[in-house]
Fold:
Amino acid sequence: MRVISKKTLRMFWEDPKRPETTRTLLASWYKTVVAATWHHFAELRQTFNSADQVGNCVVFNVGHNRYRVIGRVLYADDEKPLPGVVYVLRVMDHEEYDENRWPDQCGCHDPPPGKATAKKKKAGRRRLNQPPQRRAKQHGE
Structure:
């Protein structure tokens, strides 16, 4: 899996208020994720059995529930040459997690960003390939 972005993890563990073990715990989580290939949530749970699905986010418990990594996971697909991706949305300690503001802040219950369908792309291309006077009539110019 790819992890985007390690910088979010690093910023959290470099905070001087955090114990020195924070870096070790999050770096271990990172290495485990990078080494994994998940095609669906059940495979992810085989690696992280305490992970939870919340809307379209996954909550990873790190360091025996000391920290939470909130991520959006795009699972690997054998039909595509690209590996899966974990987008790290937020890292927090147990206390901040319990405030329960993160689902809205991370957009966990919002629909995932969509892609234009092939039909829409073709229709858009067709319009652009029309002569300028024909396009102008369609748009009321």
